[in-house]
Design a protein that fits this description.
Largest sheet of chain B: 5 strands, mixed
Distance between the termini of chain A: 150 Å
Number of helices of chain B: 15
Oligomer: heterodimer
Strand order of the largest sheet of chain A: 8-7-6-9-10-11-12-13-14
CATH class of one domain in chain A: Alpha Beta
Largest interface: A-B, 22 and 27 residues
Radius of gyration of chain A: 53 Å
Number of strands of chain A: 14
Helix content of chain A: 25-40%
Structural class of chain A: alpha/beta
Distance between the termini of chain B: 35 Å
CATH topology of one domain in chain B: Dna Ligase, domain 1
């Protein structure tokens, strides 16, 4: 059974010479030869310790503790130990502060000057005074938002755009409120913008002769309405002295020569246009009319001046009126006619009263 | 039997814990190899009804997440011989499977192959007081089985009620709520050597694992390798392992007999090693690579180089460069396999297998992979012989679907849904020591 054969030539035994024999000598112990040629095979099984450690590692709790808890604890402990010394803490704090300071005071972050545009001299002065730091300063020290709210608290400033531009320039673009109307009230004269917001106070009307005047309590809050009325009063604008708020309720248009157009509380502009239309038709305001009462839009009422009344009364043969409204007693020869005229005048008066 | 009852109940408790945790390991300590597979129980609801996956044989509720096989050490004839070596092998295999699964496993179900199993058929009978069968009656009838003297140092491994009879109606699998006056039971009890069992328990304890159950390898292989009809109609499963050839007979889905022949594939290897004067490793290689049982004329010509392949140089030129024909190898293997099958035949005869309605024989286990075994087995055991492979379970690697892992797979199925055993029922009240407390507890639980 065992032995050489030539049936399996692929193995190539037939051509191979006899193996080289080791030289004769003392035979070595078999175990040593085996150990020399082949190292002892390691036991593939894990040791009990490694088995237990692996099992422990596969336990979720231990795994979490070792992978997250332990490093975190070590980091905290080392940091805590290092920081427990007072001088170290101080030096760390100082170092951090110095580093922050160093970064903040770099040339790139410095603001050297302030550039203000669109502001009047007074506002510009106020703006410069409001800046919390003295220039040059770091841009980290300037809180633009709070500065902006502070500036916008000024009455004269409607809007301000603050930005730090390259080159260390703090740019402030100020939009000022434009005074549109003067408001005379009990405490003096104020300049208001077209929305009725106070811009400044003035000492006299003559400072801004170009602006229209409004007066009366509560007129400032309704300045926009007043502006609309002034816009509508185009033809009589040269004669316009101002608008007066009556009873915080309605407007009176005051013209020169003591003329008034009394407007209703509701839809005053339409009423004013009605008055102007009457003026255009018959030259109403050029006549001796003291007041045009439009408070009831359906029934305009005119109050005549004294001259006009007396002219009318003379034509009717009635006694004339004195400037205080009293009837001047005529001579005895006109006695009968005067009593009738006085009665007619008295009947007309209550309708004139405003 | 009280201690055993408690121990088995404790193991059942462990198994329930493991199922709740969802991870359970199955450890098959064989004579030639040790396999560990780790099961992940996802619970029901893994598949929807529309998936077309039914409960199958219970293997749809789990999947294999880790598996490892290594050469067994320190095991002879399916029993632990050298505890330290076996412990190391178990550690190795458990660690490998754990590493693959990525989870720690604490509960393990183990098989025991050898340990001289002996099976007994017990019968018990009680009179029903209530006129119908209650849960307590089932427990009582199981306790009423008159146990013979199993012998010294024997432990009960399985005690499964096989058949219930109420009055004249027999063949009941679940007698609860049946009306009758008399309840009888047939119980199959499998006992093994207590020392072998405690050695296994000790070995697993030393690996820091909790034992959640022990199953007979023959029983497990039968559950995995027999198809459902075979289990129902009656079949014998021959698990040809390395050291022990286990025989289990199933009828009506219950194991009714189990035994083991203390011969296996390792004997074949040893014969080859002795007959051809080659190292054991070479002999194993020859057996698995070139082995066979039916010689043909071609086998005389086919030469196998035994010296060069071994790698173990003896220094003798003649010895190191030998070649044998395949016919020589078959001539050595065949008588030993015949002897093993003769042993199996004797066991089957003793069990009265010839009187079974269906005489199906399923060969499985590592040694069943020898080519030509089915022909030889048909000549010795009977005509209805087939080679069985274990059931497929989800996640099992291809290399573990071979017949040699039938017991592993079967034990996994056993773990997923175990058969009722005697200790699954409450101990009858008159045997219980803490009767009052238990009753009070039950009363409280039912009424509050």
């Amino acid at each position: 059974m065992p032995g050489l054969n030539r049936l399996t030539p692929s193995l190539g035994w037939g051509a191979r010479p006899a193996p080289v024999r080791p030289p004769a000598g003392r035979p070595q112990p078999a175990g040593a030869a085996v150990a020399a040629t082949r190292p002892q095979r390691r036991d593939p099984a894990p040791s009990r310790l490694s088995y237990r450690l692996t099992r422990m590692w596969l336990t979720p709790l231990y795994r979490r503790v070792i992978r997250i808890g332990l490093p975190a604890f070590l980091a905290c402990m080392i940091a805590g130990l290092w920081l427990s010394d007072e001088t170290r803490r101080a030096s760390l704090q100082g170092g951090v502060t110095a580093m922050i300071e160093k970064v903040q005071t770099r040339e790139a972050f410095m603001v050297h000057r302030m550039q203000i545009s669109g502001a009047s001299a007074a506002v510009e002065k106020g703006l410069l005074a409001m800046l919390p730091v003295t220039l040059p300063a770091s841009s980290f020290d300037i809180d633009l938002d709070s500065l902006r709210t502070q500036v916008e608290r000024l009455d004269a400033v409607e809007k301000v755009e603050l930005r730090i531009m390259p080159g260390g320039i703090l740019s402030a673009h100020v939009t000022e409120r434009r005074p549109a109307v003067l408001w005379r009230h009990a405490r003096g004269i104020d300049l208001l913008d077209k929305g009725g917001y106070r811009v400044a106070s003035v000492t006299s009307r003559d400072v801004r002769r170009d602006l229209p005047m409004i007066a009366g309590e509560g007129a400032g809050a309704r300045a926009a309405e007043a502006m609309a009325l002034i816009d509508a009063a185009g033809p009589v604008l040269p004669r316009l002295r101002g608008l007066e708020r009556m009873g915080e309720r309605r407007w009176d248009l005051v013209l020169d020569r003591g003329q008034r157009i009394m407007l209703p509380a509701e839809r005053p502009v339409a009423a004013l246009e009605q008055a102007l239309a009457m003026d255009r038709e018959g030259g109403l305001l050029a006549r001796d009319v003291v007041a045009v009462d439009l408070r009831d839009p359906g029934r305009p009422i005119l109050r005549l001046g004294l001259t006009a009344q007396n002219t009318l009364r003379r034509a009717l043969g009635m006694p004339e009126l004195a400037p205080d409204g009293s009837v001047i007693e005529p001579d005895e020869d006109k006695d009968g006619a005067a009593g009738g005229k006085a009665g007619a005048a008295a009947g007309k008066r209550p309708a004139d009263r405003g | 039997m009280r201690d055993l009852y408690q121990a088995q109940r404790t193991m059942r408790q462990m198994r329930r814990q493991a199922m709740a945790r969802g991870v359970l390991a199955v450890l098959d300590v064989g004579t030639s190899k040790i396999t560990c597979i780790i099961l992940q129980f996802d619970g029901p609801g893994q598949f929807r009804d529309t998936d077309g996956v039914g409960p199958m044989a219970g293997q749809s509720s789990f999947r294999v997440i880790g598996q490892f096989t290594t050469q067994s050490r320190g095991v002879r004839y399916g029993e632990i011989d050298t505890m330290g070596e076996t412990e190391r092998a178990v550690r190795h295999v458990v660690q490998g499977a754990q590493k693959q699964a990525g989870v720690r496993v604490d509960h393990v179900i183990a098989t025991i192959a050898g340990a001289r199993p002996a099976s007994y058929g017990l019968a018990g009978e009680i009179t029903l007081t209530a006129g119908k069968v209650t849960e307590q009656d089932v427990a009582a009838v199981l306790a009423a089985c008159d146990a013979p003297d199993f012998g010294r140092g024997r432990e009960v491994l399985h005690a499964q009620p096989v058949n219930f009879a109420v009055d004249a109606r027999s063949g009941l699998s679940d007698p609860r709520d049946h009306v009758g006056n008399r309840l009888a039971v047939d119980m199959h009890v499998l006992t093994i050597d207590g020392t072998a069992a405690s050695n296994l328990v000790q070995c697993i304890r030393r690996c820091d694992l909790e034992l959640a159950g022990v199953g007979s390898a023959a029983y497990a292989a039968g559950r995995a390798a027999l198809v459902e009809d075979e289990q129902e109609l009656g079949a014998a499963c021959i698990d040809m392992g390395g050291g022990v050839t286990g025989v289990s007979i199933f009828l009506k889905k219950h194991m009714i007999f189990a035994d083991a022949v203390r011969m296996g594939g390792d004997l074949v290897t040893r014969d080859i090693s002795q007959g051809l004067r080659v190292p054991t490793q070479t002999a194993e290689w020859l057996k698995t690579r070139h082995g066979g049982l039916e010689a043909t004329g071609r086998d005389d010509v086919e030469m196998i180089a035994v010296g060069a392949a071994s790698g173990a140089e003896t220094g003798d030129w003649e010895t190191d460069r030998r070649s044998i024909s395949r016919a020589d190898l078959i001539g050595i293997m065949r008588p030993r396999v015949e002897e093993i099958l003769d042993g199996v035949r004797a066991v089957l005869d003793a069990a009265g297998f010839d009187h079974m309605p269906s005489r199906q024989i399923v060969l499985t286990g590592g040694a069943s992979q020898i080519p030509g075994l089915d022909v030889l087995a048909a000549r010795i055991l009977g005509q209805n012989v087939r080679i069985g492979r274990p059931l497929r379970i989800q996640g099992l690697a291809q290399q573990h679907t071979a017949p040699c892992h039938a017991a592993t797979v079967g034990l996994a199925l056993h773990a997923a849904n175990p058969q009722d055993e005697w200790w699954d029922f409450e101990m009858p009240v008159e045997r219980s020591g803490v009767i009052g407390l238990k009753r009070a507890y039950r009363w409280f639980r039912n009424n509050w």
